[in-house]
Cation-transporting ATPase, E1-E2 family
Amino acid sequence: MSESQSMPETGEKGLTAAEVAALTESGQTNAVKSSTSRSLADIVRANVFTLFNGIIFAAMVMVLITGSWKDAVFGFVILINTGIGIVTELKAKRTLDKLSILVASDYLVRRDGEDVEIPHNEIVLGDLMWIRSGEQVPADAQIIRTWGLELDESMLTGESRTVRKNEGDDIYSGSTAVSGMALVRVTAVGAHSYAATLTAQAKVYKKTVSDINKGINTILKFMTFLVVPLCVLLIWSQVHAVGGWNVAVATGQWRSAVVSAVAGVVGMIPEGLVLLTSLNFALAAIRLARKNTLVQELESVETLARVDCLNLDKTGTVTDGGIMLNDVRMLDGSDADTAAAHAAKQALYDLSNEGQPNGTGQAILAGLGEQGFTAGTVRERVPFSSARKWSSIFDGNTVWTMGAPEVVISHLQGDYADVLRQVNDFAHDGNRVLLIARHDGPAPADYESDPVIDPVSRPVALVLCSEHIRDDAEATLAWFREQGVRCRIISGDNPVTVGAIARKVRLTGDSEPRFMDARELPSDITELARTLEDVDVLGRVLPDQKKAIVQALHLGEHVVAMTGDGVNDALAIKEADLGIAMGNAAPATKAVAQVVLVDSKFSHLPDVVARGRQVMANMERVASLFLVKTVYSALISLGVVLTQIPFPYLPRHITYIGALTIGMPAFILALAPNTRRYIPGFLGRVVRFALPGGVATALAILADSWILPMIMGWDVRRSAAQLGMLRGVNAIILLMMGIFVLARVARPLNSWRGGLVLAFAATGVAGMFVPFVAKFFALVVPSGEMLAATFAALALSAIVFVLCLWCVPKMVGIFSRFKKTRQS
């Protein structure tokens, strides 16, 4: 609206130009600084300077100093893993920086007695501002004058019905004017407004906690305490093995001592697991994106597997926000195909067929249109008004009235208590009920100018409408019940209405859903946690209560997912372990959610949860592969230090064998179908699985390194060629033990998994016969006596592996029982 367009005269002059200038100078404008708690430097620093990167980088530098660059190729994993982390968090930062609940547009304010349009950011505290139908309220204000202003506050409160505002009422930024207009005085601007306060809380960066990453970090922390002293001891032992520091420096053998020490250190770090975790999360996100599901934080893919409690917002999740016509019930009990019923429906169509019908009117037009009704004759019309709560038409013979039952009946003569009882019964079933009344005869002379309901009109029908329930809601909720995920509906609407919808979608299966008014919830978080165990549906929930509900469920050690589409859901979605926003949600809600259902289809949630379970279950499987290497590397390093023998293999051996028996097969196994629900205790199970294979591999390598030189008559301390042959044999043993462990992890082998194991075993052996590969990775093909010794070593290693598979778990069990006995 421009200045030339007139607004109602109120006598209010508004702020003067000087007052506006002074308020702007003091910073009391509606501008909000947009920033997140994470700068670019913070993101880069957090991803580059990690414990994992520090260990790998230090090891790589040590190897490069010796000039053996072939043994430093393991360092590339730093660049890949760091890059994935930075890109992911930068994407999250950009999303958060764009977060805004308010739509930036121009607004009409009164200054110096004139109405002028100004941008959203130039509104100042104390401004007189016009709020017109269709506009979003840009700042908190108090109503001075109103001309039938009605606000949609669903984005703030979750209440789906519009709210009529009166003079003196407060209105809050983020709500939207549905009808009417008002002159208001701005009471809070910028960062102090309600919407900006919600935005500021939502913008605080929160990293999703990953159980896998926590487990990996626990391993890394343990390794840190072990790596530094062990590395020093390994260098000392390797130098001592060649005759001491003087000989090592004079002959240059200090270089091989450093490389050998790094071989032990690098083997203990599950560098591939860190990389595979990031890549697997990214691939899961890509797969979900193909199903219109946007994953905004990669780690949240894992959280999907652990969810056991799902809080659902009603509007936009279980329902799609639309309204539908359910039925037109004649109060005389007649059938729908009678002449009276047909006349009532035709009148209902014409009553709803206004210039700009509201949501209920549109639903009625759509429903009756499907039954073949079209526009009839309307001589005169009284349009619907939220102030009157009714509308009316005169078709030339009859005056028809439609509106809120209690309002219409209050104008009629006679006792209609039985009609009101029917209205209440239908309302308790989740219906929005309207009443149709008729009066046969001419319309009054002042029908349109001074409309009233004729007292002799009589009620003839009830119109039943309801929110449109998503077609996929019932099946989706059934899937969650079968998977052991407890679902609750949390809404700002009437708990009886929400409870009726929960009953229709069979939220609790065959049992009746238990509902409660959130105003009766205890404020104490512990009491709230106990109360929630017996509640399936909550109505009249405020935004802060939604957040408190999530916190209370956390007290019960539940992993909570929260869905929603309004700003009122943003804080709860952020507080939840997994926030899920609908694609038609407010920008603030989508920005803080980890997962966005782009096409707003609730039925995508089972796919989302199933993908998370696949990632978590498979990552637990393949983590065992990586931890086996950690175990045997630590034990071999300890054995080398204690017996002061040359280190049994080179870093490049670990790179080659690790890629074929751990890295590449792990990547394939991580993508295999798996719907097992995640059970807490990831690290403990992985360690128990990895110990037998790790101990067996360490014993086999150490035994070969002690016994083979004696059998073959080698002096590996003085002969580099003989040491190279010993390391070549050990590489073959490492390959075989790696294949054994892979076969154990990949079970059952009577499918493609068996073919996978055989393929990588064949590839590992074939690489020894390819000159370039053999030379680069220092592989040897044994022959003669050495071949016989190798077969003997392999047989011994296989026996050790089988024995360890039986003995180590027994010993772990005995230790666990002993520990429990001591604690009790």
